[in-house]
Every structure is written in C-alpha cells, then in structure tokens.
Design a protein that fits this description.
This protein folds into two domains: 171 residues, 7 Propeller (Methylamine Dehydrogenase, Chain H), CATH 2.130.10; 164 residues, Methylamine Dehydrogenase, Chain H (7 Propeller). The strands form seven sheets. Strands 1-28-27-26 form a four-stranded antiparallel beta sheet, with helices on one face. The chain has a four-stranded antiparallel beta sheet with strand order 2-3-4-5, with no helix packed on it. A four-stranded antiparallel beta sheet has the order 6-7-8-9, with no helix packed on it. It is mostly beta strands and 337 residues long. A hairpin with a 4-residue loop joins strand 10 and strand 11.
Length: 337
C-alpha cells in the first residue's frame, strides 16, 4: 500500500516530468508551441509488468490496453479519465483489435496461443480460437471481414470474424512483428526481425518480395504513409528510423532516434511521425517531403514506456508507462497540435 509520503513523492515526480516536458518542448522549437503536449496522466494502480499494444473505440471513448505482464486488458474510460475495468483470463495479451461495426473486441494471447473474441458492448467473452502460439499483432481487412494475426515461428493467420474461425494463413521466414495493410488490401508489409527483412505479401497472401534489414536490425514497429508511398520502420540495432519507398523497396532516409522503440505512427494530417521509445522518450519528426524529415521534439516519458497508440480522430497520442520503482503504471495522454 502506498504511504502518504510515497504519494507526495510520485505527485512531485509527475509535476517535475510535466515541467521537464515543457522545457524540452520549448528547447526543441526555440520557444515556439510544441506539437505534443502532455494533458493528463491516467493511473493504473496494481498493474505490473510491461505493456504491449492498444486499440481504441473512438465513439465509445474507450481505450483498450494490453497489459502483457499483468495478464489483463485494461479498459480506459477517456471521458472520465480513469480505468473503468480490467479484462482478466487473458494470458500474455499482446495485440488488441476493437471493431465497433462488428461489436467485437479481439485479443491475441501469446502464452496460450489464442485469439479471444469478446462482445464489445458488454465485454462478455464469446469465442476462443486456438493453435496460434505466441499470437501477437492484429490487423483488420475490412472488405472481407478478416482479422490477420501474426503468430508462431512465422505466419499470418486469416480469421473470418463472421464465422469466428481460422480459414488460412501465409507463411513467413520468422515471427512477424508489426505489419501494415494497404487500404485496398493488395499488399501487407511485415517486419520479420529474426530473418532480418521486411516481407511483402500480396492480395492472395503469397509472399511477394522482401527488403533486407542487414544494416538496420531489430525492426519491430512500422507505419505506412500510403499517399506518399513511404514505409516507416523503427529499429533498435542501431536505434534508427528508416524510410522505404514502397514501390521500389529502396531505402530513402534514416534518422537517429532514442533506443528500444516498439511503436511508431504516421500522422497524415500533420505530416508527422511519432516514435515511442522504451529508453524514455517519444520522438516527433516532421515530413517536409516524402524523402526528407526534420526532428521536431523529443518528449521525455519514462524508462520502459515503449508502446502507445495514436488516434487521428482525437489528435491524441497515448503512451503506456509501466510500474518501475516509484513510478506507477499509467497512460500518458499527449495532444497533437
């Protein structure tokens, strides 16, 4: 139980973090307004271990956070600014997918190799689809109503969400990390760090081609700027943001970032890239042209805060901060301006 003294210390630390954020922002822009502004912290008392990925019910104002180390999915009421519920019975949740049009919430559980499907409105468990060892990231192909789940030693499973069953898969040379689907679902770009490559899969889920990742390795997060035909990859060895032309597979740019990145996002409205890094920072870069970017801001967060979620609808970046020492687990809410 946290003592009064500990509570005061944490409050003081959070105040110092907000002050440090403001100073860092002002320094990055010579005193100009900053693109990312911390607006609130949402505490998650009792949540232990590291976090993985998020999903958002924008209309319902609910954020779903995979608390991997806690074996829960934390449900955040954004209107109230607090946790409303913890979904238990999920073992090592890694990927979360909220589908309001289907009234479904899907959770990929790495420890027991299942995709667990819940009714979104009530969060009542409906179905568990097994045989997906180390189930990880999830994406949605809206047209045929398929969930794509990265799992195992190298595959993307195709899950028919109407039938609630696995209907096929596409093999890969290693475990898939982040992957992105084009709007027409013609191609899927997949980070395969163990194979040191970015795989490309076509509409029929056949492996089409790949881009080697020998110089820039440990490629975990990914984002796509489809309009400019650019693919953003976050690497840990060395810590770099690298940019590829999606048509030619050519590397067009690379930039130094903080270490231990696990999530990155492209803000198509503001033409910015946000890179969430476990070293304790969010890096914000501006796209001045498809091949050129400039550093805007380096926002301090906390050690181990390496996953998040960007909502273009809310113009907000959410970052998960794990419990570490006197720093309690929380979600930091940064407004994108």
């Amino acid at each position: 139980m946290m003592t009064t003294r500990s509570k005061l210390w944490v409050a003081a630390w959070n105040s110092f973090g907000a002050l440090l954020l403001a100073v860092t922002c002002a320094t990055a822009h010579g005193g100009d307004s900053s693109p990312l502004k911390l607006v609130t912290n949402i505490p998650l008392p009792g949540v232990e271990g590291r976090f993985d990925h998020f999903s958002l019910d924008a209309k319902g104002q609910r954020l779903f956070v995979a608390a991997l180390g806690n074996n829960t999915v934390e449900v955040i009421d954004l209107a109230a600014g607090k946790r409303s519920q913890s979904i238990t019975g999920v073992r090592k949740p890694q990927g979360v997918l909220c589908l309001r049009d289907l009234n479904r919430l899907c959770v990929a559980c790495g420890e027991d190799g299942t995709l667990r499907i819940f009714e979104l409105s009530t969060l009542k468990p409906l179905k568990s689809i097994g045989s997906l060892p180390d189930a990880d990231n999830i994406r949605y192909d809206r047209s045929p109503g398929l969930a794509l789940v990265g799992y195992g030693d190298g595959a993307l499973a195709l899950i028919d969400l109407k039938k609630e069953e696995k209907i096929g898969e596409s093999k890969l040379p290693g475990h898939p990390e982040s992957f992105q689907i084009t709007k027409d679902a013609a191609r899927v770009f997949v980070n395969v760090p163990d194979a040191k490559q970015i795989a490309v899969i076509d509409r029929k889920m056949r492996k089409e081609k790949s881009s080697p990742m020998e110089k820039y390795q440990a490629n975990f997060p990914m984002a796509l700027d489809e309009a400019s035909q650019r693919l953003f990859i976050g690497c840990r060895k060395p810590p770099r943001l690298v940019v590829f032309d999606t048509e030619t597979g050519t590397l067009v740019a690379d930039y130094s970032i903080a270490g231990d990145t696990d999530d990155l996002f492209f803000d198509s409205q503001q033409k910015r890239v946000y890179v969430v890094c476990g070293e304790g920072f969010v890096e914000a870069l501006e796209q001045t042209s498809p091949d050129q970017y400039r550093a805007l801001q380096k926002v301090p967060t906390a050690p181990g805060a390496r996953t998040g979620f960007f909502s273009p609808d809310l113009a907000t970046l959410f970052v998960a901060v794990p419990h570490h020492g006197n720093q309690g687990a929380e979600i930091r809410v940064l407004k994108c301006e």
